[in-house]
Amino acid sequence: MTQPGRLIGLGVGPGDPELITVKALRLLRESPVVAYFVAKGKKGNAFGIIEAHLQGAQSLMPLVYPVTTEVLPAPLSYEQVISDFYDQAAEDVAQHLQAGRDVAVICEGDPFFYGSYMYLHDRLAHQFEAEVVPGVCSMLGGASVLGVPLVYRNQSLSVLSGVLPHDELKRRLADADAAVIMKLGRNFHKVREVLTELGLADRALYVERATMSNQKVVPFNEVDPMSSPYFSLIIVPGERWQG
């Protein structure tokens, strides 16, 4: 019987190609199949990070999202459409694994930190050997670009989604020593309102596409909420500790 292949989740970092780890690079080069999630008509940030390291004999497996951020007409449900997509993607990857081929699924940032790989892991890790290689996540890339420590001494860090309702986001931010707010996009105006109401706007720092070649650091009060991209985040660092 053919020995099943391994499912390998590779974190390739937040954008700077030099932030991929030595282990991730080795496993990438050794994998006969390289899979990557991508929007229709796009190459994708994760693929751009690793493209120069690919070998000619490797098979590429783009997993193309049927939807991204667009609003679907009734009775279509985004949650159901995307769940069905992950089911099909898992079946497609499983065919390679059952045939004995390792599949490296590349993931921008870290596979288990808002990474699409995790949805394949949930569906396949109980059937096949799985290995996950951590990567530098976007919030750490953002902190390095902004040149700001996230937390001091005994402070705690909260990672929040901008998708949260206004009152829930406000409650969680009010209780945080320091925070990173992700998934901005259409939620930026709401997030700005919450930060202003809490008196945190002066501490808030904004960055787009941290560590990428087209990264952009903008003063928080000058950000255009209509053009805030998906690949952006806000950092509210902890109060400096005089150690």
TrEMBL record:
Residues 6-219 form the Tetrapyrrole methylase domain. The keyword Nucleus does not apply. GO terms for molecular function: precorrin-2 C20-methyltransferase activity. GO terms for biological process: cobalamin biosynthetic process; methylation. Pathway: Cofactor biosynthesis; adenosylcobalamin biosynthesis. It is an enzyme of class 2 (transferase). Pfam families: TP_methylase (PF00590). It catalyses: precorrin-2 + S-adenosyl-L-methionine = precorrin-3A + S-adenosyl-L-homocysteine + H(+). Keywords: Cobalamin biosynthesis, Methyltransferase, S-adenosyl-L-methionine, Transferase. Its EC number is 2.1.1.130. Belongs to the precorrin methyltransferase family. PANTHER family: COBALT-PRECORRIN-2 C(20)-METHYLTRANSFERASE. Homodimer. This is Precorrin-2 C(20)-methyltransferase. It comes from Pseudomonas weihenstephanensis.
